[in-house]
Description:
By secondary structure, the chain is mostly beta strands. The chain has helices spanning 174-180, 337-343, and strands at residues 20-21, 36-37, 79-86, 89-100, 105-116, 127-139, 145-159, 184-197, 205-216, 220-233, 243-257, 265-280, 284-295, 305-317, 322-334, 357-370, 376-401, 409-436, 440-453, 465-474, 479-489, 492-496, 502-506, 510-520, 525-532, 540-542, 545-546, 551-559. The chain contains two helices and 28 strands.
Amino acid sequence: MQAFAQHHEQVTVEGRYRPKVNKVNKLQLTPETPQPSYDFPNTEVNPVESKQKFALDLEKIAPTGYSAKNDKLVTPTQNFLMAGIGTRLSPIFLYKHNSMLTKTLGLGVGIKHNSSWVNMKDYAPSSYMNNAFEVNLSTSKFDGFQLDGGIYYKNDMYHFYGMKPSTFPVTLTEDQIEQACPRQTYNTIGAHLGLASTTTRVGELSHSAHLDYFYLFGREHAVDLGYSLGYASNFWGKKDHPQKIGLDFGAQYDYCIGQGDNLFVVDRILFKVDPFFEMSDEFYRLHLGVRLDGTTKYTDEDHFLAVRPDVSGSLFVLNKKLEFYAGLNGGRELLRFSDVVQENPFFSPTCNPSLCTKNVKLGFDGGVRTNIAEIVDLHLGVRYRHTDNDPLYQQQQVTLLLPITEGVEIPIWNSYELVCDETQLVSVLADVRVKLRNSLTTDLGFAYNSCKPTVEEYAWYRPTTEGKLKVTYDFNEKLSLNTSLLYQGGRYAKFFDGNTSWSVEKMKDVFDLSLGVDYKVNDQISAFALLDNVACQKYQLYYNYPVTGIQFFAGVKLKF
């Protein structure tokens, strides 16, 4: 999960099954006693085709502080269970447990499963399975510190074809189909450990640190280390608005090996140092910093050390109901194999990917947000990114032996590899929320993206326009209705035409409408139903991989 934070404030995103100990505000004068808080899990049913059908994310610059389904008060509970079944994909299962073992020690446990029940024959006999298990502990018993940590295990299997054997010019055996479309299985284990000081006094140092590790079996090791040091004091001005100086440090290690005939090894280290100064008052907030980062030299184009701005600020007017903000940023990021296969499950693990270091040479964020009208939240923003080594996807050739003539090979273009290019992106974003009578909530998001690569003709598969609409209506205390619409347009694919050259095709626009209903039987039991992709649109997120059509899901949710 990613967090996008304005003004570079610290944002902590807890894991789905992690009991949360509230972080204290380092600038507060009155200390808070850490208490467990129950995060109501995301109960929206969206297991459809797992990694194929992505929930549209506009990467809000300043998202609203609450969501349509989760803005109600939720009674804390120790256990939550959701189970359901679909017409083509089954089952759906989610279990979450949160409890306090002692007054200061919290436990979180989670189990998740969803899979295909029958072959998805809309484009070819295919299937998938996703499993996850997580355990977390958190405590505030240490003198002046709070500690949280946990471990997780994930098992993901994808078996997609991108071709219909029945339409192939020759009859392929099962072994040859499996060779062209291998069953990809990714087993991952990981661990997290975090430590943060609970001091809230002005004039004292505050510390926080984390260590994360994951291992993708047989393919990738990764370590992420971070440390923050801060000191707040009244150098000038009001006592309730101290200034703060600090230093953020991070280091990442990534070791990746490929499989198949084209064996590759990627061994990289990235470090970053970000000194900063912060100050705020009733009508402004200012963050001044600079980011220095460096990487081990993986290619001749890599630069060992780079300096990027880390500056942001806000101006508040009309009693903080209207905010104008702007900021400059940049920095490098390791492109990991695990990130690639999560975004595109059709990526071939046997090719030599350009696991480069993605480098944002210059970034800008600016805009305005307001909630002047009590029922309307509005945000308008603009974003600019000048990125080197920006990863794009294109088809990769896999060769098979013809079953008719021994020794003759045929190309099959049904998997993907990476091409990295220098891009310039300009985005215009808009988010609107309207809430009426605490029963009707409407969320509308829109983004226009102009991404221009330097070498490639288009930024492959990236949409020019994106939109989403979600409406939730509480008919009464028991019955709740919801609908969502996702849209993407202006996407282009680069594919091999089967002869001797590459071709470009404009992809069909994504138009996906879903209808859902929740019925509350009592405080512990509720039922849900979802009609997904109502218009039965078999659009393609990646060339030759259409999504399945209309589907129906139903199940129950339990709190106990």
